[in-house]
Batch of 2 targets.
Target 1
Amino acid sequence: MSVYLDNHATTPLDPRVLDAMLPYLREEFGNPSSKTHPFGWRAQEAVETARAHVAALIGAEAREIVFTSGATEANNLAILGAAAKAPKDRDRLVTQATEHHAVLDPTHELEKNGFGRTVLATDREGRVSVDALRAALDERTLLVSIMAANNEIGAVQPLAEIGAACREVGALFHTDAAQAVGRLALDVHASNIDLLSLSAHKFHGPKGVGALFVRRRGTRVRLAPSAFGGGQEGGLRPGTLNVPGIVGVGEAARVARLDLASDTARIGALRDRLRDQVRLAVPDVVVNGPRDPAHKLAGNLSLSFPAVDGSALLVALTDIAASAGSACTAGNSEPSSVLSAIGVPADLAVSTLRLGLGRFTTAADVDYAARRISETVARLRAQRAGHRSARRDTRRDAGHGARHGAG
Ligand SMILES: *Cc1c(COP(=O)(O)O)cnc(C)c1O
């Protein structure tokens, strides 16, 4: 048996999405830039249908969607592209501590090149304070980049309040919505979002495709491209379009819009069931992230187990696909920067399991995972206690030895 509970890392392709893509991997192989024959026309039509589906999911217009290779590229295009077009008197950026590296790294790069960068702290649940944001903003702020929802602890940020604060000072608001799209109702206009990144493989679409929303309605956002060589996607993202991938992200968006409410309710109930079962067996388990379900992704469950070796836990749980609360760098496990940012102590951070439930998670998956996690934690703790008393015995023996020696 093997249970997939790593839906923050990636999600399985929805069969409806695969079915929509297959013709574009077979007979419909045209290049949408071919304007003189039906192969090109049909590919073009498929791309435009997909663009409309993606736009509808986030309350945008089709012309505001630029297809990319995923959220990493979309984040880079948004941040570096806005910076390259910045007016002289707008040279400051604001972001926050629990962002993905695809936001932290490009903003850090700009900082090295002379931009001012403020990295806001979060509260212990991983949410930013809108007052702290307001205090960090001024007339020189070019761009605020704050994610919609976090990939480790599921914290959902107050997007509408952030958007309103940005609007007051004329700063652009970019949000990395890779974890939120398809999982939360998003509206770029209600939240005053100027730039939004999304990734198909985080909501049951294919890997290697995503999109950037670039506002045109109201104030048009000006971006510089980061690649040159063709006019595709308004010149912002030149290169022959990935038609099967784009059809896939379009269908994933269409399906997500239909299923969002029922998916969220079912996934949230399964997540609560998993949490409650583990809590019953391991009463001292710590649940990371927001307590208020309205501030947390329905499928997120980040659990820390005091006095358990996290790497031993993951090794023992190879039948549960999950992630650790640590990043392995050169063999050392470093506590995750997100858990550090919300104040989880290092020893607890390294004994953290990040579980991510999704559209295809079942009650049987959850019950199996709860049982395996609970029994493994109990076994590792018993072993640890065993080692402790063995070490005590060894020390006592060594003590005797020393006395004998001295005698
Ligand atoms: C997965 C993820 C990304 C990266 O998306 P790709 O499409 O894989 O490049 C960026 N930000 C967040 C929050 C993510 O979860």
Target 2
Amino acid sequence: MEISEERLAENYRVLAQAAGDEVAVLAVVKADAYGHGAELCAPVLAQAGAPWLGVTDAQEGVTVRGALKLAIPSSQQPKVLVMSGLLADEAGAMSAWDLTPVVWTIEQMEWLRRAVESRGPGERLDVHFEIDTGMTRQGAVPGAELDRVLGWLAAQRTLRLDGVMTHFASAEVAGSHLTLEQQQRFEQAMAQVRARRLRPQWVHAGNSSTIDNSAEDAHADAVNASASSSRLPWLRRIAAEAGARPMVRTGLGLYGYCLPIEQEEDFLGAAAAQVRSRLRPVMTWKTCVIGVREVPAGTRIGYNGTFTAQQPMRLALLPIGYADGLRRELSSTNDRPGGWVIIAGRCASILGRVSMNLTVVDVTEIPEAAVGSEAVVLGEGVTADDHARIAGTIPYEILCGLRAFHALRP
Ligand SMILES: *Cc1c(COP(=O)(O)O)cnc(C)c1O
């Protein structure tokens, strides 16, 4: 798997530019950088200017911090946000590895407080606090629950509230009622934060699609001429009220993909994608042909013989399969085509079932194909969107399901 350093850095710049000058962009490298290799990608994104990286748990945070330490001087290290809560036994790693946990319960903060205090007097730890504005996954619910937890946080000194965040359920839907409701709840929650005299440095919300879909709020704010020139006016307003910096968290877009924008039924604005067309896939997943053979008409191919050659065919064998993340849904039958790879610039269709570690493709029309020929499994001519469409899923699941050796390429 080749990871293009140039494209990764360029996608970061495209997203950062689209987010606007005042809005910072956190680069999400969770799930091994969506299958791209977090240890390769984290330093590239840091050098591209990401002030924050996002991981899912302490273990990933330790890996990413370790990779950053090898590549980046300590004064220029980005912060690392651990986004999916924590377990009691992860609390110690947060302060030891300079990670910033996302929290929303007193229990979590008690674990952290004890871990930090055990490191010595005067030790402090920054935390980011998540508000559940409607996704019902993680976060404190605005109102009495939020006030109780904020009250606890405001009363002690070991933990410092560095950020407040929320996450949207329908960022790719233009004119989403759900998103609007979530933005309003977030604003109410921020009023509760202010009422407790807490002063976070950062306020963040949204993902790649939030930036891609930001034409709609530029539209909504068109009356306000100065706001229309910069994106995400609601986020900038909420952050400004708190005296904090606004930030968006991008993952998929960094790797060159973005969900298509959908529209709420009653949406009247123009839903134009802001960045989708300018993002380029970062990963090229390649393998080599390990066998070539010719078969007569009538030959059945692969498990259960789901594909039968209708005429003499030339087949190439590839040493990859579903164990590597090549989805089994890309299998074919005579009635239903499946996926394809690119060999010598041409499409070679997958024939029969994708097996655990082997896949057969059709090279009847590709005479150059020989043992050792390169086959592009994902890259120019075949994308994670193609695989997702055939497998009935989203590109996220395709990318983070891949398992391969990674190498960085300029
Ligand atoms: C994964 C994640 C993101 C990034 O989302 P993309 O759709 O990949 O841009 C943002 N915020 C949180 C909390 C996440 O878990």
